[in-house]
Amino acid sequence: MKFPLLPIVIILATAPASGALAWGFEGHAIVAAIARDALTPKARAAVDSLLADDKDTLTAPDLLARASWADAWRGAGHKETAEWHYVDIEIDAPDIRSACNGFPAISGLASVGPAHDCIIDKIDAFRSELADPAVPEAEKIIALKYVLHFVGDLHQPLHASDHEDKGGNCVMVALGGSRTLNLHSYWDTAVLAPLGPDPEAAAKALEKEITPSDRKAWLQGGPQQWALESFAVARTSVYSFNPPPGCASDRAPIALTDAYQAEALRIARLQLMKAGVRLAYVLNAAMGR
């Protein structure tokens, strides 16, 4: 079901900070749709086979819906996976190793833990499982769903940054009139409203803007470099209105200018395109050989 922007904003403004979902369902679906169109035939067949064998009912069984499965799983009581969705690199004192809990070693199945880890490690671990023929199919199904989600998460700038404000969840912003929500929720969902309610159509429109040179440039590096890119976007653009750090409860909402919102939309569109191209790259490398 689709809702106009105002009800979405009201819902997000009243939701608990811990429930923020990077990009929301539609954003993750856009990323998945862009990636699907760039899969090799072999990778597409392998992805479709795993999806067909997945009997989980938390989300619909199609690729676009499964891209939001990790949020549904966390919300179903699996808070031990919460830290896997982000890497909180501090705006004023960036230290990616500290933000990733020292890059803890993973032993055994990636879906088991450790709980105190970050999105960079989890993408690497789950994509390794997808490429390993010795990994049981049940674990590969889980790995696929996490990769679908986490590559998208990594490109939401507030999933790779923090300003002592819980990734922007403590910063209230105003969009005009009575529309207020926190900064994280703005970047999750409200910023994407101009793309329309149909993720497939939005993905097709964005794909037309991706050039061969874009694809080549975006495939450099890996999850750690992509996280640092997102962090740089957060520091220079997301926090460009200089909100004070911290989570003081007595601050009035900060008005976002039209110029800020226009630039946020430009950045969000670019980040979605990068995420889709990179998700296809990860899946092709792991499953398309």
Beta-strand fraction estimate: under 5%
Helix/strand structural class:
mainly alpha
Q: From the 3D structure, determine the CATH topology.
A: P1 Nuclease
Low-confidence stretches: 1-20
Supply the CATH superfamily name: P1 Nuclease
The biggest beta sheet reads: 3 strands, mixed
Q: What is the average of the pLDDT values?
A: 92
How many H/I helical runs? 13
Number of domains: 1
At CATH level 2, the architecture is: Orthogonal Bundle
- Gross morphology is globular
What is the C-level CATH assignment?
Mainly Alpha
Percent helix, as a range, is 40-55%
Description:
The protein has 13 helices and three strands. α2 (24-36) crosses α10 and α8 (137-154) packs antiparallel against α13 (258-287). It has a single domain, classed as P1 Nuclease, CATH 1.10.575. β1 and β2 (180-182) form a beta hairpin. It is globular. By secondary structure, it is mostly helical. The longest helix is centred in the last third of the chain and has 30 residues, at 258-287. Residues 1-20 have low confidence and may be disordered. The chain has a three-stranded mixed sheet with strand order 2-1-3. It has helices spanning 5-14, 24-36, 41-53, 63-66, 69-75, 96-99, 119-131, 137-154, 183-188, 199-207, 212-218, 223-238, 258-287; strands at 172-174, 180-182, 254-255. Helices cover 52% and strands 3% of the residues.
